[in-house]
Structure formats: C-alpha cells, structure tokens
Amino acid sequence: MAYIIAEPCVGLKDKACVPACPVDCIYEGEKQLYIHPEECIDCGACVEPCPVQAIFPEDELPEKWQFYTEVNANFFPDKSDAKAWEGHTPPPPSSS
C-alpha cells in the first residue's frame, strides 16, 4: 500500500509534504504532486503537513477520488502528467 495524493492538490502544489517525506518519493508534475507507489514506505509523514488534506493511505482514499491511485501510478516512470491523466479528466485547478 502507498499513500495517494488526490484532488485538493491539483493546481495548488503547496509542497509542505515534500520535506516531510523521509524517502523523497513525492514528485512535482504540472498539475499536482505525485507519490511514487513503489518508493513510498507507508510512513504517513507527508499527511499532516499537507495544508489541504490531499494525501490519503490507498485504502482510505474517498470513493470519489479512487481513480487517483491510477493517476499517481501512471505518472511514473516517465514523470508525465499526460500519461498520469490518460483516460481521466483533470479537475480545474484549485483556487485555494
């Protein structure tokens, strides 16, 4: 299981979670930040610093955002937003 970054991060990309990650598995794309599912050690250190509550354990991801598991995984290995969002419509950027 990995942690997943969901819709509240789209367009915002606050990055407070990045220095909290002990294994540097959070990457920045054009639309949002992404957690590499194979590098994540499931420690949860990134959750609390996120100012918009966008990070969830995979098994606690709200149903409406379940597709973010695929979006996060598809971002890798190329680190491509286009590949990440293939087959999905990204929401408009957050105005937060």
The helix-and-strand class reads alpha+beta
Low-confidence segments: none
Count the beta strands: 4
Mean pLDDT: 94
SS field, number of helical segments: 2
Shape: globular
Helix content: 10-25%
Q: Main beta sheet, described?
A: 2 strands, antiparallel
Q: Could you tell me the radius of gyration in angstroms?
A: 12 Å
The end-to-end distance, rounded to whole angstroms, is 29 Å
* Element order: H for helix, E for strand: EEEEHH
**Beta fraction of the residues?**
5-15%
Strands ordered across the widest β-sheet: 1-4
Structure description:
By secondary structure, the protein is an alpha+beta fold. Helices cover 11% and strands 12% of the residues. It has 2 helices and 4 strands, in the order ββββαα. The protein is globular.
Per-chain topology:
Blueprint (H helix, E strand, L loop, with lengths): L2 E3 L20 E3 L4 E3 L19 E3 L10 H7 L6 H4 L12
Antiparallel strand pairs: 1-4, 2-3
